[in-house]
Amino acid sequence: MATHISRERLQRLLDAADVRLNGSRAWDIHVHDESFFHRVLAHGSLGLGESYMDGSWDAAELDSMLFRLLDARLDRRVRTLDDYWFAARARLFNLSKRRPFEIGWRHYDLGNDLYRAMLGQRLVYSCAYWRQARDLDEAQDHKLDLVCRKLGLAPGMQILDIGCGWGEALRFAAARYGVSGVGVTVSEQQASFAHEHCRGLPIDIRLQDYREVTGRFDRVFSIGMFEHVGVANYRRFFEFARARLGDDGLFLLHTIGSDESVHSMDPWIGKYIFPNSMLPSAAQITVALEDLFVIEDWHNFGTDYDRTLTAWRDNVESAWQALGERYDERFHRMWRYYLSTSMATFRARRSQLWQIVLSPRGLRGGYVAPR
User: Fold this and answer.
1) Are residues 253 and 356 in contact, defined by beta-carbon separation less than 8 angstroms?
2) pLDDT for 194-217, tens place per residue?
3) What are phi and psi of 344, to 5 degrees?
4) Helices in the chain by DSSP H: which ranges?
5) Are the C-beta atoms of 95 and 40 separated by less than 8 Å?
6) In sequence order, what are the residues at sequence separation of 6 or more whose Cβ sits closer than 8 angstroms to the Cβ of residue 365?
7) Does residue 175 sit in helix, strand or coil?
8) Would you call 133 helix, strand, or coil by DSSP?
9) Residues 75-95: pLDDT tens digits?
């Protein structure tokens, strides 16, 4: 009886998204374990993701099903104790300086084999720019070139990359535009790879908290790292960036953005994918940079992230036979759910991708934004 009631209650919620339990359409949910009904009602997004990882349900088009849930705003109708716990935890721990390294060993140190298979030739773990691109590698090449053009890079400039990943953006800028630079990451595997990847170029890769970097640079950029800073540290982040630039410098921030101001991440994403992370809103960003920077350009190409994530998912699925020697099936389902959830979020326009160009005092005569 309890299972029947839970099933009926869950179906009433799913009706708003036109999703059926054990229906015949590609986006319908096929239930393999009846504990699924209670887990979702009791634990919301955490229960939905964990039950998928455990094989309790499937959908032929997982991203399409998740898109329908998000587009119907069902995540705002189902609030559980997990949501409040993760929000309180984020507020409590966001100020710690040691916590940034947790994202390094829990996510970015999973294995370079996984990321090499997923990300393509460029090994760039951020949204590609598909405006005139035919495939993922070309789209990432266009994104990196867009960053360089927006910053007006020229030979002899020294740049700082906050959150340099595997070093590709710095390598691209040094090889294509003749600059030198410093890159910092909190991932040991990223730092080790980047050292070799950038060998022979005037690039210094450091395993270091960005807040420990000193000196001045002609340009600063941060690509896909701001999501790990946390709202309690936004102001300090922009103060740091300002301190690293002269009055005629430029700073480019490439970040995922939320359409609402929040103080924590989705519970499932926070537990399994990106610990201690959250997405900034436009309001939170503008408050944090007030009196520090002039906004020269704000470019949203968030719909390109759906296409980028689709390419990443397809790459992982194609490579899984080899990857499965190191990662078990539960991890496989977790990773597929992560990429599919992210695709759905951008498709529903619940998340955006922003590139923001900032100058300390405003460029005399104005700024012409490349596209």
Assistant:
1) yes
2) 999 999 999 999 999 999 999 999
3) -65, -40
4) 2-15, 35-53, 62-71, 81-93, 100-103, 112-119, 136-151, 168-177, 188-197, 234-243, 267-272, 282-289, 303-323, 329-347
5) no
6) none
7) helix
8) coil
9) 887 765 455 444 545 555 554
Nearest CA among 358, 95, 94, 104 for reference residue 241: 358
Beta-bridge mates of residue 158: 180
The beta-carbon contacts of 174-179 under 8 Å, at least 24 apart in sequence, are 174/198, 174/201, 174/202, 174/203, 175/201, 176/145, 176/148, 177/148, 177/153, 178/154, 179/153, 179/154, 179/155, 179/218, 179/219
Q: Name the residue with tokens 């039950």.
A: 51
Tell me the C-alpha distance between 148 and 183, whole Å. 15
**61/68 Cα distance (integer angstroms):** 11
Model pLDDT, residue 94: 53
Tokens standing for residue 181: 């630079």
For 120-131, give one letter per residue: b (16+ CB within 10 A) or e.
Answer: bebbbbbbbbbe
Contact 300/353 with Cβ under 8 angstroms?
A: yes
* Full-model pTM: 0.92
Q: Model confidence over 290-340: pLDDT tens digits? A: 999 999 999 999 999 999 999 999 999 999 999 988 899 999 999 999 999
Phi first, then psi: give them for residue 258, nearest 5 degrees.
Answer: -100, 150
d(CA 309, CA 312): 5
The residues, ordered by sequence, that sit 6+ positions from 72 with a Cβ below 8 Å of its Cβ are 16, 17, 18
Q: Which amino acid is at 312?
A: W
Computed over its alpha carbons, how large is the radius of gyration of the chain?
21
User: Residue 342: helix, strand or coil by DSSP?
Assistant: helix
